[in-house]
């Protein structure tokens, strides 16, 4: 009999190892506008304006940029015991952590999940001031909350089954007519996703996304980076996603960690929420306006650490790779047959 999984509410925080804490602080606080809950010489604890738990992002100084943990909040403290039993049953490494092992977080359970990611489950956390209406503090690029994790994993169907075992449901995916699955979006909170599974060599972190209330806040970050002559930190977008329908921007932090700014996806909370499956050759799947997906968006991702802080070895993806099955710079798969002005014709 399979053990009962912990009741996951949502994605809740991530810890990134960064090599220059000061440069990272400038990026995440001065440019992205995240609120500092606590900081010292070793780490900075950040939250977005609607968040009242201690943090949704930890930046920890270290020698090599990497993901240290992805954390999900569970509904009750009792879910931690369920997590221990469930993951012990899966035969993966499981560690209990006392309250305070992570500043601001109560008792927790940390695992190396079946996909190789360092994952934490917690319920109790310190409450801090919620800045929802502290408009005196919001900048023009105000971010509201952590929205999702995007992880790179070689076998998307296997990863989907693992997350379905945790009670996540698929909202959208990308397939081809042979049934190869290139990516899937899965949720516990009633939005498009808490975690996206991107097919590729993994385990690696593709990105962490914060939601804003408005598109103009994302556009302000673009203008702000331009004013600082840091436009090279803009990797992809701004644009409108096909999958999720969200307005988006991808930026790269000083270590190359990818952060997405994201707004206006849609509600998925009813039990019969329809799954949307996109064809990998649909050039509006990743950008609704058909703009190209820059090659680095497919190739680059952050290494992840095991529970001892060592980099996890990568497993190569054996299925077809999305960047290979679309023509040239992505986004022109079905327009590539016509004479076109789009970049894809020239690469
Ligand atoms: O959050 C996301 C929603 C949609 C997309 S996609 O590029 O439209 O597939 C990418 C993404 O996973 O970052
Ligand atoms: Ca708007
Ligand atoms: Fe995303």
TrEMBL record:
CDD domains: HPCD_C_class_II
Keyword Iron-sulfur attributed: no
Domain of life of the native organism: Bacteria
Cofactor: Fe(2+)
Gene3D superfamilies: 2,3-Dihydroxybiphenyl 1,2-Dioxygenase, domain 1, homoprotocatechuate 2,3-dioxygenase domains
Positions of the VOC domain: 10-124, 145-264
Keywords of this entry: Aromatic hydrocarbons catabolism, Dioxygenase, Iron, Metal-binding, Oxidoreductase
Gene Ontology molecular functions: dioxygenase activity; ferrous iron binding
PANTHER family attached to this UniProt entry: GLYOXALASE FAMILY PROTEIN, GLYOXALASE-LIKE DOMAIN-CONTAINING PROTEIN
InterPro entries according to UniProt: DHPA_dOase_Mn/Fe, Glyas_Bleomycin-R_OHBP_Dase, Glyas_Fos-R_dOase_dom, GlyoxalaseI/FosfomycinResist, HPCD_C_sf, VOC_core, Xdiol_ring_cleave_dOase_1/2
Listed Pfam families: Glyoxalase (PF00903)
Protein name: 3,4-dihydroxyphenylacetate 2,3-dioxygenase
Homology family: Belongs to the extradiol ring-cleavage dioxygenase family.
């Amino acid at each position: 009999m399979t053990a009962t999984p912990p009741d996951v509410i949502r994605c809740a925080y991530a810890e990134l190892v960064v090599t220059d804490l000061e440069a990272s602080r400038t990026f995440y606080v001065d440019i992205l506008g995240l609120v500092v809950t606590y900081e010292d010489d070793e780490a900075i604890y950040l939250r977005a304006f609607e968040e009242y738990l201690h943090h949704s992002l930890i930046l920890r100084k270290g020698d090599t940029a990497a993901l240290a943990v992805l954390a999900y909040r569970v509904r009750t403290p009792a879910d931690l015991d369920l997590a221990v039993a469930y993951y012990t049953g899966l035969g993966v490494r499981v560690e209990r952590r006392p309250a305070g092992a992570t500043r601001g977080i109560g008792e927790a359970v940390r695992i190396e999940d079946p996909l190789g990611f360092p994952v934490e489950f917690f319920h109790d956390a310190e409450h801090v001031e919620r800045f929802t209406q502290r408009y005196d503090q919001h900048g023009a690029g105000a971010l509201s909350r952590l929205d999702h994790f995007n992880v790179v994993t070689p076998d998307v169907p296997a990863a989907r089954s693992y997350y379905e075992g945790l009670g996540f449901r698929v909202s959208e995916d990308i397939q081809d007519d042979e049934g190869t699955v290139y990516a899937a979006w899965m949720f516990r909170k009633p939005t498009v996703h808490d975690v996206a599974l991107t097919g590729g060599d993994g385990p690696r972190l593709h990105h962490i996304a914060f939601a804003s209330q408005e598109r103009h806040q994302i556009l302000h970050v673009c203008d702000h980076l331009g004013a600082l002559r840091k436009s090279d930190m803009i990797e992809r977008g701004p644009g409108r996603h096909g999958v999720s329908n969200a307005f988006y921007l991808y930026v790269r932090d000083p270590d190359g960690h990818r952060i997405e700014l994201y707004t206006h996806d849609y509600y998925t909370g009813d039990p019969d929420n329809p799954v949307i499956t996109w064809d990998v050759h649909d050039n509006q799947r990743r950008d609704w306006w058909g703009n190209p997906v820059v090659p680095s968006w497919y190739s680059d991702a952050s290494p992840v650490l095991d529970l001892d802080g060592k980099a996890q070895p990568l497993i190569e993806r054996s299925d077809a790779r999305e960047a290979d099955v679309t023509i040239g710079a992505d986004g022109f798969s079905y327009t590539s047959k016509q004479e076109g002005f789009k970049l894809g014709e020239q690469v």
